[in-house]
Every structure is written in C-alpha cells, then in structure tokens.
Amino acid sequence: MLPLVGAELTPVQLYRHLLRCCRQLPTGAMQQHYRHAIRQGYTSHSDEDDPERIQMIIQRAVADAGWVLDKVGMKALISLFQV
User: Fold this and answer.
1) Is the separation of the CB atoms in 31 and 25 below 8 Å?
2) Distance separating alpha carbons of residues 10 and 16, to the nearest angstrom
C-alpha cells in the first residue's frame, strides 16, 4: 500500500499513510512498536522547515515502510511453504 509514485505527500498525509500501513503488520506488538516509532519520528522532525529536507525524509519513510511490509510479507510466505 504505497502512495502514488511521484505524488508529493505532506507530512500529515505521510503520518496517516504510515499509520495505515501499520494495520497490515501481523501482530499487535509489531503494530504498537511501529506506531510508536512513527509518532516519535513525526514529533522529532516537526520543527524541520527546509522543503528539500522534508521531501527527503518523506521519500525515505515511504521506502522504509515498503521494505518493512515486504519483509513481513516474505516471512509469511516462507512460513507457508515450510509446512
């Protein structure tokens, strides 16, 4: 569930997108961990005012979210085939 390629997200849209991505994680503990990390990242970068830096942070966050979801998806596939 990645946003449209080339679409520029605002920080609030990114925050909401990442929280929605957390719902795809398999366990409640993982969801809670990543929700906490997202919240901390959002508050720690809330004073950022350079538009280029903000876009870099957004691009990195979207890429990282995709990586986490792919990793979790691959673990689920591997566990299905190891039965």
Assistant:
1) yes
2) 10
**Residues in contact with 53: Cβ distance below 8 Å, sequence separation at least 6, in sequence order:** none
**pTM score:** 0.76
Instruction: State the Cα–Cα distance between residues 48 and 5, nearest whole angstrom.
Output: 23
Q: What is the CA radius of gyration of the chain?
A: 14
CA-to-CA distance for 10 and 7, rounded, in angstroms?
10
Q: Could you give the CA distance from residue 52 to residue 33 in angstroms, rounded to a whole number?
A: 28
Tell me the Ramachandran region of residue 31: left when phi exceeds 0, alpha when psi lies from -120 to 50, beta otherwise. alpha
DSSP 8-class letter at 83: -
pLDDT in tens, 32-64: 999 999 999 999 998 999 999 999 999 999 999
